[in-house]
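Figure S7 source data.
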Amino acid sequence: MCGIVGYTGSQQAAPILLDGLKKLEYRGYDSAGIAILNDGAIKVDKVSGRIANLCELTEEGKKCPGTIGIGHTRWATHGAPTDTNAHPHLSNDGRFAVVHNGIIENYICLREELIGKGYHFDSETDTEVIVHLIEMYYRGDLRRAVIKTSARLSGSYALGVICTDKPDTICVAREASPLILGVGAGENYFASDVTALVANTRNAIYLDDGEFAEITPDGVTVFDPAGQTITKKISRITWDIEAAEKGGYEHFMLKEIIEQPRAVKATITPRIKDGKIVLDEIEWSREYLESINKIVITACGSAYYAGCAAKYTIEKLCRIPVSVELASELRYSDPLIDEHTLLIVLSQSGETADTIAAMKECKSRGARTLAIVNVVGSTIAKLADDTLYTWAGPEIAVATTKGYTTQVCVLYLVAVYIARTLDKLEDADYYHHLSSMLTLPKKVQEALDMNPKIPKMAKKYHATKSMFFIGRNTDYAIALEGALKMKEISYIHAESYAAGELKHGTIALIEEHQPVIALCCNTALMEKTLSNIVEVKARGAEVLAVAFKGNQEILSQADDVIFIPKIDTLFSAVVEIVPMQILAYYVAKENGCDIDKPKNLAKSVTVE
Ligand code: M6R
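Tokens for the predicted 5-amino-5-deoxy-1-O-phosphono-D-mannitol complex:
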């Protein structure tokens, strides 16, 4: 999704903005631009395509003198990804420039109104109405004009505005899109994401919805919608720069796959203390947990699949019904949710628009909300009644890996915690589950180490047009995520099926050499999945099976086998998904795909 940055200080702004935009590349974009204010005039440079094109156009920013500016990476929604539609957008009088992340839902009527008043539009974007409204409302006070403009907008926005009358001031506004101020010494910044700030400052102010700020080299001042000054806490950014860089790996995705033992450890180990689960961040009494009659998990994409994988564990241990709902569906479903529902919201970014909307809908019906998010201070973390962070560190590749595994880990902790609080677990089982969870980092490491042959397997399977992923129960849930990984980065059509469903339709698609990835780690259902392998093999499929080390039976049935270390089925998703991630990575590499930034996708989906 779009990314925005801004700088005001004593250094040349353009190179700092370009650097910030590069850090936001992972969010996904198709054009980029900067606007620099210098000697009383605003100069805009913007191009479609990669930031490298903008760097070339501006000679790495050298051609753009000036110590204040704003920048943008655009992920096209309204209007094609052209130079003209790229941000920043200029007012007709050239006095204002705007960058915007979000969507203005009422832009059509605003556009008609502004055209009626004589404003002309250069682009097809929803954003352009903002800069013309600011020009229309401006009476010498930029802050007032931005506040008045914001009051006319429906939808979501994080805005950065510069004005030729205010040669050192940037005005910003936030509503339902992330916006963070970076506080420096003699220079200040804003960005849609901390990764664009950490190289310059670790002091951040997270704006809330409805807030505005003025940023000058000497300080930042935050205002409420009435224009009254408010005091905000300065938070310390703990992510280090190296964590947000590739560190010698060819792709962020590979680096993030390999970081999983550490991420899983950081997420689980501090929460198991002195032989019990300690979730310091949440306050659930036994009475509260007894009052819950169902758990609803909501999320999008891989986060949704993380919920699907953990549903089995929660239901098995807690004996509370769990339904896992796509946020984009739940928000419009008139859901049967009340104060007896515990809503668990999963999101790596904490900014996914559909997830936020579903969460608000369920909150308004009385559900208590637990957010499981990776980005500290994100919108979902702030909206939730309780938040548990996944300590995965920054995830840059669009395809999530450590984000998914750490979400599943937190759900495992929550499952065992609730079950124990409700006296559903005997001591022996409780301690057994704790030690199973504590072995997960080591098991994930073994899953990484045990499979040096996956790149070779990728060479065998990469040229196929489609792949089927099959499994039962927990294996099916993991197959869903395995197939998503494959399709999003390798562009191979990949679908997952509950293995028992094959003969109800899908098996008609199986023909000679059709790759079928069969997940066979659910010990109780292994024999059943083996029968499904036999069925597809009889129709010519080539089967690549995933099984526990030591499973001899599978060797005689499958064409290829990936082994993983044995682990209790209740907690297997975190380990079992690892070879699926590696397989997708190497298949995509064989196919020459842009692995970290797959086409048409964005890291943080901040629009509906
Ligand atoms: O930031 P979120 O976890 O809320 O993102 C949800 C999905 O957009 C995300 O998991 C997406 O499916 C990933 N690209 C999958 O790798």
